[in-house]
Amino acid sequence: MSQGDSGLSAYAAAMHAVNDVFVEHGRSLEDIGFTLPDRPSNIGLPPCFRNHEFSGYECSAQREIYVSKFTPEQHEAMADVLQAIDDTASAARLFSVLSSAGTGKSWFVNGISWHLRAQSRIVLNVAASALAATVLTGGRTAHSTFRIPIPASSSSLCGVKGGERQLIREAAIIFYDEISMVSVDVANTLDRSLQEIMKNSVPFGGKVVVFLGDFKQLLPVMPGVRGDITVKECEWWQLCRPIKFTINWRAACNPEFSEFLHQVGMGTIESVEVPSTSRVQSIKELVTAVYGDDMTTAPLHRHLILALTLNTCEDINRFCMEMMPGTATTATASDILPGNANQDTYPLDYVASIAVHGAPPATLTLKLHARCLTHNRSHCSMRLTLTTGT
């Protein structure tokens, strides 16, 4: 290395070291129009990239586990996606994988993710819900990754700054799962933001984005809004290259039932007759049918009771708790009212009587061997009752 090259390398290292400090505080030198030189390989990755560091051995091993079990459909789709990553001249590099549950959409995402990470490339795996994100390697919710505002509007932008913007620029691909739950405003907010970040006016700033989901499942819900508000209403949706997986591994042993579910989801069956063996007339019959008469063994069951509302969950939980043997203990929340200058106006017993959406109850009844699940109600897309407690 010549003396001139050494000086340039030292300058680049110094500027990136300064920028890393900016990044840790949510800013970047690029925010003020400064163009950073190429990052020297000897100074490591910036802080926001460190969660995307993987050992070569781990990536190769995981890639072999996933890709070796790909179907011919998945191998063909993988080749198309990888070609799109390398084809930077393409105007729109969007894909849609809309297939039924059990066809290997998450397996497909994880296989390509490990393949790209083995090449030291960055992959952003996001989902519309936290539960769906846990199935993807390194998955997070789209709202936390891209700082999507709540609520999103027809003119809103994501709140990503500094290092997060740099991470998005460097990402080779974005996988977005459970796209059926995403509203048109949220999807367009991400589209506008990526165009601004990438300084590119093509959809999603020219990034390769793979949307996955099943429109026969959950759809977005907005209070007071009727009609279709899914991503299919976005102007750019027609640019997505469709990918279809037809082999259903989850229902391979029962293809008749799989076809029945497909017909229900597509609306080709006008009505479904519920078997008499699956009907109950009371909460007592429901609990007995699911857990049996001996509630001491209920916590050992893997069976669950799903309900449509939180009020129904509370009724079922209360009944299960009463059926459990033993003495009940009531745990009371310790509430504080920070910044309240008039404490006497809101006595604690009054605060405890208020049911706040998204907040846990003021009291929790516990019994020995009773199962208890703590959760944030505001993030429940489907209400879940676990035998004896919420």
Structure in words:
The structure is a single chain. The protein is of the alpha/beta class. It has three domains: 44 residues; 189 residues, Rossmann fold, CATH 3.40.50.300; 110 residues, no CATH class. The protein is 35% helix and 11% strand. The chain has twelve helices and ten strands. It has a six-stranded parallel beta sheet with strand order 3-2-4-5-1-6. Strands 7-10 form a two-stranded antiparallel ribbon. It has a two-stranded antiparallel sheet with strand order 8-9. Helix 2 packs antiparallel against helix 4.
- Show unreliable segments: 374-390
- The portion of residues forming beta strands comes to 5-15%
Quaternary state reads single chain
Along the chain, the helix and strand elements come as HHHEHEHEHHEHEEHHEHEHEE
Compute the separation of the termini in Å: 65 Å
- Mean residue pLDDT: 79
Overall shape: it is globular
